[in-house]
Amino acid sequence: MKQFVKHPLNWELIYDFKKKTGFWQSFWQSRFKMHPWLESIITFIYPARCRCCEQYMSVGKVHYICDDCWEQIEFISEPYCEICGKPIDFNPTPGHDGTQKCRWCWRHQPKFSKARSIASYELTLRQAIHLFKYEKKIVMAKHFAELMKDTAPKLFDLSDYNYIIPVPLHKSRYEERGFNQSELLARELENLFDIPLHLGNLVRVKDTRPQFSLETREEKLTNVQDAFEVREPEKIEWKNILLVDDIFTTGATVSEIAKTLLSEGANRVDVFTLARAG
Ligand SMILES: [Zn+2]
Ligand SMILES: [Zn+2]
User: What separation in Å is there between the alpha carbon of 54 and the centre of ligand 1?
Assistant: First the structure.
């Protein structure tokens, strides 16, 4: 049976304190910057294992995952569909409007202008997102945002957006999980991208079934139909919006949100996700 050694420090707690007060931020930063030996001693007494490769690790850049595994994250590179960002292993013929689209985008005409993800939902990133979402290691949001920050300038003109909006959870799902993973990511990106976060206006009014539990794309499209509403449309009128989520699967959810935002007056909706499944 695998024996995981519990990480010696309660990183979530530290992270939470850092977010809440400047005092705690300087408290922890000063201690960890001034006394790296303290970390070394703690690591020596309570060694932690990497949650991907299970090797013992020192306190690395990223919590729970060793530096070697973290560096193995494979970023998505061209060629990919100009609309949804799906990697394609051939150069498709441009359509009559000049864009190179995947089959799904030709067929379904997603309502967002473009969607991009930084890496495939596999290996290290899959494990890291699992830690984040299901084991509630919310400190991971900071590391994910750093990855997104490094890649974002190649994918988007960040000066173009008025708001960052995270994909909302339904109230009951939020209460069950205790947090919205997309909102935590968006909160980190707000500072890194210098784009205001716009919360509470876009709401999920239908408690939809999890998209991964559905088989066909048609089922997924129907599942999220009319699931979102904008409470104060005047606030998003003529705005360019960067929609943020953790995983892009078929794009049905973000396309439905884009449809809602555009019909309520938004000018453009682009999508930025951490990982791409499929
Ligand atoms: Zn590792
Ligand atoms: Zn596509």
Answer: 6
User: Are the CB atoms for 275 and 246 separated by under 8 Å?
Assistant: yes
Distance of CA 149 to the CA centre of its chain: 11
pLDDT digits (tens, 9 = 90+) for 154-176: 999 999 999 999 999 999 999 98
Range of the domain at 33: 11-71
SS3 202: strand
Rounded to the nearest 5 degrees, what angle is found at the Cα of 151, between the Cα atoms of 84 and 77? Answer: 55
What is the 66 CA–ligand 1 centroid distance (Å)? 4
Cβ pair 67, 60 in contact under 8 A: yes
Q: Has residue 78 been placed in a domain?
A: no
Name residue 241's beta-bridge partners. Answer: 163, 269
Quote the tokens at residue 207: 């408690």
CA 14, 17, 19, 22 torsion-angle sign: negative
Q: For residues 148 and 195, is the Cβ–Cβ distance under 8 A? A: no
pLDDT in tens, 199-234: 999 999 988 877 777 777 778 878 888 999 999 999
* 118 plus 256 within the same structural domain: yes
Give the global pTM: 0.82
Question: What is the CA(107)–ligand 2 centre distance, in A?
Answer: 9
Does residue 164 share a domain with residue 271? yes
Give the CATH number of the domain where residue 226 resides: 3.40.50
Q: Name the token pair of 234.
A: 């005047």
Instruction: Mark whether 41 and 177 lie in a shared domain.
Output: no
